[in-house]
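Issue: copy button drops trailing tokens. Both records pasted manually instead:
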Amino acid sequence: MIIDSHCHLTYEPMSNSLDETIKRANKEGVKYLLTISTEDKSYDKILNIINNYSCVFGSYGIHPHEAKNHHHIKSKDIIHKVSKSKKIIGIGETGLDFYYNHSEKNEQINSFIEHIDAAQKTQLPLIVHTRSAEEETLKILNEYKNKKDFKILIHCFTGSKKFAFKLLDLGAYISASGVVTFKKSKELAETFKDIPDDKILVETDAPYLSPVPLRGKPNEPGHLIHTVKFLSKLKNISYETFSLSTTKNFFNLFGNLN
């Protein structure tokens, strides 16, 4: 059994053929899927999906790209949104993306802090997007961890090994996407080789980042098997053992799904 810890079922083309997409995933052994919120206006779609598919769970949050359009979303609003369903099990994705800067840095930081506050108050895991913002991400996570503990999942990790191990020092879990399978990602693969097995989750980030050998095609949860195969070979353990490890890690972070 595998769990896709991060996908976007509200995005095309998956949203146009959800039944078939989810059936293909289940057939490949992807038993559960976590569909991730990036903006407020799509949240009702997420609630509808998780109500209609027993194997799908969801999150609520505002992507850093969208921070400029969501100044009104505060911690209390996030807490209200996640309370709408017991199948909403995470807060995010939130974080900092200074690579594109689609929202101003201060807008991203303010939004990130509101999400952290909500995670501290609800004790739901915080799903963090971080790109070209290692120093700032660590500074904020450290500052707020020292005030009150909260759970952290770094999604689609592509950072440095130094960054990874500083995140591990904070108790964070780190998720691998199809990026780790890319030929240009040798340094990233070596980082994941050294990350303890009990701290790794796996994801597709579908419909983006299809793993080798499916690069260039729209991604979907069923493709997760290729990332798991790559990582299990990298770590020189069986596919079944690594799958079980990532599933156990998901349950440790998000709780048992029932």
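Record 2 (pasted manually too):
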Amino acid sequence: SDQKVPWTLYEAKKFLRDLGLGYVPIHACKYDCALFWKENANLENCSICKEPRYKMNDGKGKKIPHKILRYFPLTPRLQRLYMSRKTAGDMRWHKEKRVDDGILRHPADGEAWKDFDRQHAVFAQEPRNVRLGLATDGFNPFGNLSNSYSMWPVVVMPYNLPPWKCMKQPFSMMSLLIPGPQAPGRDIDVYLRPLIDELKELWEDGVVTYDASTGASFRMHATVMWTINDFPAYGNLSGWSTKGYLACPNCNENASSQRLRSKIGYTGARRYLPEDHPWRRSKLFNGKADDRARPSELS
């Protein structure tokens, strides 16, 4: 009854920080070269392009950085999932309550999940270890206004939860907020570094976590199983160019692309037909028969 709404923004931020809901501001280079973080935390100029860190620095304490990356630490929010008995039980749903009848209802029913369990048996022995999905895309926070601005949130989702919870908003965790005004493009890996470093620690060392459903602590590990993106963002995250003659990641270097006037067309769909199919011998498509084997499937 004595709780009051914080009167100032500072008090509100302090209140959220005490709940573990704060974020870490990390200054970034104007041209997305590097972060002023860890070994670069005290630098006044970018270690790569030598661009000044601040766009305003009057020498009297007032410093305004060019860009600020907002980083929301992932570990405390994963630990919070085990602080409630209900969600702690749901985090074991994929192992204890899922019906394995060959029907795909949840990522745990998929071959990728099962193959991961075979390759990393020690990780799979503890059902409370967290499997994550990662999604990112750009948006204009100012709506449909004339000014162009591209801000990129990076969101992770815990797939241990049952299918009616794992993709719902309360369990989607924003881990990074990458600033604009332009999209980071292939330099997105610079901004992903804080999250990647934390994920490496969660994979290799883990973190001691209290489980409210059992009343005991365990060492929680985590891994990213999938990324969810549209095709342009996929090109940025994976490093595989999704433009030009080798845009298809499945065809890889064996792409069937050719120039069609001012555009690039992909005309090799007949490779997927059976070898004795009559359409393979037909010249009605592009004036040629196609006797190539189907491209090898990537793991």
